[in-house]
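ok so i was messing around last nite and threw this chain in just to see what happens. nothing serious, just curious
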Amino acid sequence: MMWGNNAYPCEQCFSAENQYQDKVTLTIKGLTVEYVKILVVLTSIDFCCNNFQGEIPETLGDLKSLIHLNFSHNALTGRIPKALGMLTQFESLDFSVNHLSGRIPDELVSLTFLAFLNLSFNQLSGRITSGNQLQTFSEFL
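result:
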């Protein structure tokens, strides 16, 4: 769609240098693709039910505009990244039905906008840190 002479109505509002991360390599169904210039103003990522394997990358903490993240129903292993605590706009986080282990990071306490948290059906251990938004949940899933 064209808006006058510009492809986007707010084209001049964004500085391309600040809105992109260098690159990421993604393998889906055996096909590996390297994406260059990844937009960091993503607000929602839903990768549920994809049989993803491996660990959740700490670099998710670089996506400062992320509000919703769903990696449920995969085969993810390892720990929940501490860097997720840096996503101060986070409202929804779902890592349910994976093979995650270890403690729930204390850094999640800083997610003051978090309204939905589902970490069920993993092998997480230890106490859940209380404080800020985590105290408002009536039950932990």
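not much to say yet. Confidence is low (pLDDT under 50) at residues 1-16.
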